[in-house]
């Protein structure tokens, strides 16, 4: 399951990041988005979703949301 299928307001644990793009992996890691971390989808938007990771909220696009396995 990935973030595009997550219910709003429910906390999930990130299983893995499914991408071969090293730059994308580094970017997500800098946000605190890595395996074992809790993540919550605050809301789904037309082009992606708003997520809460640690103390921050981030707007991520659909491709990025599909790469985050929960």
Automatic annotation (TrEMBL):
Query: Taxonomically, which superkingdom?
Result: Bacteria
The record's annotation in Pfam families points to: FeoA (PF04023)
Q: Where is the Ferrous iron transporter FeoA-like domain?
A: 1-70
Asked if the keyword Iron belongs to this entry, the reply reads yes
Q: Give the keywords, sorted.
A: Iron
InterPro entries hit by this protein: Fe-transptr_FeoA-like, FeoA_core_dom, Transcriptional_repressor_C
User: What is the official name of this protein in its record?
Assistant: Ferrous iron transporter FeoA-like domain-containing protein
- Which species is listed as the source? Blautia hominis
């Amino acid at each position: 399951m990935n973030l595009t299928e997550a219910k709003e307001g429910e906390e999930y644990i990130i299983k893995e990041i499914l991408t071969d793009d090293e730059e994308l992996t580094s970017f997500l890691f800098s946000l605190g988005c890595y395996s074992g971390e809790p993540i919550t989808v605050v809301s789904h938007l037309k082009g992606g979703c708003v997520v809460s990771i640690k103390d921050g909220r981030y707007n991520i696009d659909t491709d990025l949301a599909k790469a985050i396995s929960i």
